[in-house]
Amino acid sequence: MLRKVVKATVALGLVVGLAACGDKEEAGTSAGTTSVGESVEYEIVGIDPGAGIMKATSSAIEEYGLEDWTLVEGSGAAMTAALKKAYDKEEPIIVTGWTPHWKFAKYDLKYLEDPKGIFGGEENIHSIARLGLKDDLPGVYTVLNNFFWTADDMNTVMSDIQEGTKPEEAAAKWVEENTEKVAEWTDGAEKGNGEEVKLAYVAWDSEIASTNVIANVLKDLGYKVSMSQVEAGPMWTGVADGSVDAHIAGWLPVTHADYVKEFEGKFEDLGANLEGTKIGLVVPSYMEIDSIEDLK
Asked: Are 128 and 271 in a shared domain?
């Protein structure tokens, strides 16, 4: 269960720089100073334990010598709730983060530099299909193979959902407003006749948005679509054993590298559906800290 990030009295003149609300103090003074770790109780607020970003963060804790730090397991929703609570009070907090994500539009945030390259560079999100999908459901295969959009497209859907619109309604709105792009995805796709299509996705805001959009497009083509929200392991396992037709949430080459290796030869990678993603440790910009190395 996500533990509460306790408020700490933080000044601008910290030995390891960190900003929070309050009056500025001269650098070097001892009154009211504390370390970055102490200010957040040596906790990094994470998401579900099966996510690749959690493994990468665990590796970062080890590689950067942060033995006193704890990675708190939770969910994407719990992470953003903790971030909002801290941000509204200008309190320090460190979370696992990724882009595209609506929180970067809503809050002034920054990634901590990762000089050891533990989190890798830019990634892409791939569409992953079960073996045999092309023969069994060629229309579905064509749509997934053609599917490609931008971070701005995804952010539009995510923002609507974050502001209270139901995911399926936000997806339908985007599809209606982007008929030309959807026409490119459906070009050459056979229409369905009520055939069932099983899609899996992880509970990341980005994947909720993309999966609902593709589900809407496939339904409009005449397919019966069911969506299963699972953790990353079951998502990849389902495609590999054929119990799931596809997912469009493969973060590669780093985040889901273990699953690619584990299930090599048991799925078909249809390529990137969105390019230029990123994962790492994220803090509010008011915190005067720039690198993971500063957490020592």
From this structure: yes
Count of the separate structural domains present in the chain: 2
Distance, CA of 279 to CA of 122 (rounded, Å): 8
When mean pLDDT is compared over 20-24, 55-59, 101-105, 126-130, the highest value belongs to: 126-130
Same-domain status, 191 and 291: no
- What DSSP element (H or E) covers 126? strand 123-129
User: CB count, 10 Å around CB of 106?
Assistant: 15
CB of 51 within 8 A of CB of 202?
Answer: yes
Does residue 115 have a cis bond before it (omega within 30 degrees)? no
CB atoms near residue 183 (< 10 Å): 10
Helix or strand run (H / E) with residue 227:
strand 224-229
37, 56 Cβ separation under 8 angstroms? no
The Cα 127–Cα 269 span in angstroms is: 6
Structural domain range at position 48: 36-121+280-295
Distance of CA 84 to the CA centre of its chain: 17
Regarding whether 191 and 109 lie in a shared domain, the answer is: no
174 and 99 belong to one structural domain:
no
Class of residue 200 by CB neighbours under 10 A (exposed 0-12, middle 13-18, buried 19+): buried
pTM for this prediction:
0.76
